[in-house]
Amino acid sequence: MPQRLVIIGSGFAGMYAALSAARLREAKNVSPSDLEIALVAPEPTLVVRPRLYEPNPETLTAPLGELLKAIEVTYVQGCVEAIDTQGRSLEAVTTSGARTSLGYDRLVIATGSRLFRPEIPGLAEHAFSVDQLDDAIKLDRHLASLAGRPASKARNTVVVAGGGFTGIEAATEMPLRLRKVLGADTQIRVVIVERGATVAPDMGTEARPVIEKALREIGIESLAGVGVAGLDANGVTLSNGRHIETETVIWAAGIRAAPLTAQIPGQRDKLGRLLVDRDLRVPEVPGVFATGDAAKAACDDIGNYALMSCQHATRLGAFAGNNAAAELLGVPTQPYHQKAYVTCLDLGDAGAVFTRGWGREVELVGAKAKAYKKEINTVWIYPPRAERAAALASADPALVTNL
Length: 403
Prior knowledge:
- By secondary structure, this protein is an alpha/beta fold.
- About 30% of the residues lie in helices and about 25% in strands.
- The strands form eight sheets. Strands 5-2-1-9-21 form a five-stranded parallel beta sheet.
- This is NAD(P)/FAD-dependent oxidoreductase.
């Protein structure tokens, strides 16, 4: 009897789940008519989300249509609105408003994450972000529009709320982006506001001084131990009462699992991620796997968990797709593991910093790290070419991003 594996999401985890499931199906000489693999997403497109802090974000996508055809994965256009885990079906809405239902034998939740936006006065009306493609395009157009506004301190000032990975990359790119719009001699002010005790709180004691030095070199101010209390048309008010005049506030203060994960009746962590076992199953819900930013997954046996990053999402996706297909094909699953971990943080004109391991040991800084970052951003994280054998080979769970 034909079976169907459904993957929700076309991000890094969803793409690799589809590739890996198709790889195992072919390795076991199973026909697509006996095991259908379907990917549901609003568009057959990968948004290269790690690059959305860069200019021209509308160019930072990669088409998946030909790739999915090459590996015989069915693309279903739509945004999933409802999941019935007891009836093993889901309902999606197309861009035209039409509704479609789809049954499944196994389901992979690869719905990613969204920026956390708390109920701060004025945040929804006055803040920009680089979270989703539409957000990044809106910010890019706003920055371009500044050239037509009267010169002022507010026009030339950017406040970035959040001193983590995304906030630092957005902030360090701002001086170059603004000077291209306003002129090379324009006095630009960029301020990072971080509620925690330091910027780059997760980067460790070895990498943090490198980052702080880079921020000083390119003239970026850091205000730690203070949060955003409110925004208005004239600027941002901080939790200590200080007001900064600005026409550009970028919110980058944390992410949460996409809301659709709340429809799965499983346990979740404080970020909304579904708790999964080592095969990436949601234990409480038969037939459902979670992956990427939707899953809290143990990377090893010593207490490290996958982070919400494309590096973890690609490998998580490969294991989830393989294991969901393996259950349907009656072959052994492969427990997820990811002992290796690196970070490469873009620091704008100051280069970058490359670290290895959970302790963030610094290996490269400055121009050498920047070259590595460029290679990651422009080559490594893009989809494989739409050639069947090469695409399927790229999705071996044991090899994906095994740095």
